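Quick check before the chapter quiz. The format below is the same one you will see on the exam, so make sure you can read both the input and the output lines.
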Amino acid sequence: MAAGIEVFEGDITRLEVDAIVNAANANLQGGGGVDGAIHRAAGPELLAACRRIGGCPTGEARITAGFRLRAKYVIHAVGPVWRGGGEGEAELLDGCYRNALALAEANLVRSIAFPAISTGVYGYPLEAATEIAVAAARAHLAQSATGRSVERLVFACFGADAAATYRQVLQRQTA
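Here is the expected output.
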């Protein structure tokens, strides 16, 4: 694995990290998949905090407390719906990762976990999304350690296929 990057297969809400990233919808009101799991684990306070924020455009991110989670923060990143790749989906997905990492830095987060943003009901092809996620993570961690707080980045995968894809892409991008 690349320095500072890990692949974890399992429930993102159980990880011991400073922040977990939520694959959120634009209204930040909770939903299915990882979004629903994070809202259930964090408790109703998370939904109340998201309502105060009022939403988040695709490609951007917002931060709240983690409430009942082990993580101090939840960073809500809104990924694009896959429409075939010709409508700026790659740039929007890259923005999710970069904006989430910028919020992590602004809040002195040392460890962060990401789900596979947009690969569930939003339909983004897993391997293409993984290429973007890993490239963004590697670029961030390659920055000078001066002024960078994030030291550990975990890709939390729900299932063996996703975990294998992340490991393969990490190995390929590291070679």
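If your answer matched, good. The beta strands are 5-9, 19-24, 61-65, 73-78, 111-114, 152-157.
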